[in-house]
Amino acid sequence: MAEDEAATVRTLTAYRAEITLLVGQHRGRVVDAPGDNLLAEFPSALDATHCAVEVQRVLAARNSDLAGERRMDFRIGVHLGDVMVEGGRIYGDGVNIAARLEALAKPGAVCISGTVYEQVEKKLNVDLEDLGEQTLKNIARPVKVYAVKVLHEGAKGGAAENALPGMDELTVPGFGGRPAIAVLPFDNLSGDPEQEYFADGVAEDLITRLSGWRDLPVIARNSSFTYKGKPVDVKQVSRELGVRYVVEGSVRKVGDRVRITAQLLDATSGHHVWASRYDRELGDIFAIQDEIIDAIVGSMYPELLRSETERAKRRDPSNLDAWECYWRAWWHRLQLTKEDNVKARELFQKASDLDPQSAWPFVGLSVAHRSDLINQWADSRADSVAEMERAAKRALELDSDDPRCPLAWGAACAATGVWDPAVVAVESAVQLNPSMASAFFHLGSALVAKNRIPEASQYLEKAKRLSPQDMWTHEFLIALALAQVAARNPEEAIRLARQGLQRKPNHTVGHLILAGCYVDLERIDEARATVEGLLRLSPGFTLTGLKPFLSGWDPVFVERVIHNLRKAGLKE
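The chain above was modelled as a monomer; its predicted structure follows.
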């Protein structure tokens, strides 16, 4: 902090955002985050320990990009025990023991208690070191402690050892060698042969919906259904079909209810990427099937793409193909810092150079330039607008049937205040892929700008419902908060904005919403503190730079926003 306060705050903010995201992915919630600490609770010891190990792996990868003196190492303690709950906070010896275990851990490591060990011993692919019984400060009895040896890529027992030879390179011709995915027939567990059609229909619909995303090639039904009724080894399936990912699941009908389970597996390691269960009452069977397929695809696909992002992030930066450049770029883009956005633009450009006929790098370039504009990082607004529009137009020229391309053009139009073309473009993306949460997010955001608040909120809620753990969920929440600002509900806007900022603490619009709503509620000190925090993240942010984004909005709304932010301390 003494050497470079601004850089330290940016790194700490980005790392805490990464940890918060991983907590959510492992079904946890952040309870408190004072200073450089973070307290989270989970529904199971296994979820908590998996999350702790993944946090250390991800942060180690991020540290590898920093000079030695700029790296940040965190200690983590995990304990299973009773807690007291009060107003969303948790207290008691369970929390205290976790904190003492954190202090015992080495930097970049994890310590777990004996109660956690009993739950996870045979379920973790890591080595554990028995540290014996430890006397912990202010804890009456000694606690059995184990150190988790966090394994990074290539370490003994890590992903490199468990992967099948050559499996990580399973790709198909096209965009820089994309990995493929196969959906296997779902098992009918109902004991009723007549339900076989429903189980097959779920798998077939998944194939159709996944194909609509156009990210990863999906193996045709005629090939994947050859495994129907046979015992399946996903690694063998991967060898035979040439896929990196496999989806499998089951259908069970009991009385007037149906239960569908689905899981996504990474065949290079045999590890689960995602799994979920859906219970519904039977009514219109086809409507239920559509609803469940929407839920499965909306929840599963972000996890699949997050897996690809993490894989690309771990690769040698000097030896990335177009696909890996593209996903490594998205990882940088999602950190929401000026420096990471520069790296994102460079990697999107490299992906485009490696595969000039692919639309996707141009989509990414347009989004990265838009991020420069929103956060006021651009040296020249005019140049960034031109580059954003050029990239979005080129993406549309290359592949107008990919929903991301009209979506990128709609977002570019929105960034320049041209709202009617923005709505038309985003609506076409929704039609191309009705399971795409980000399309509903952009449509809802555009309708907020056009002051169609009830309709906008409906689309934004659908985006959040389609993909509650999406890599973009923070955007969904903050857009919903903005809709509440327009509807003059500052308390609800604050609640939603805080939820979004909990996932991405350096989100500019989230801070602006908080500051403006605090002024509405005459909480001026909090408004000014919020603006001061924003300016630490984006020192050059001004009202003048914000006004172009409010072009075309309701004039009364714009006047209120500018007045409130000026009162909160944001300068012209």
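The first strand starts at residue 29 and ends at 32.
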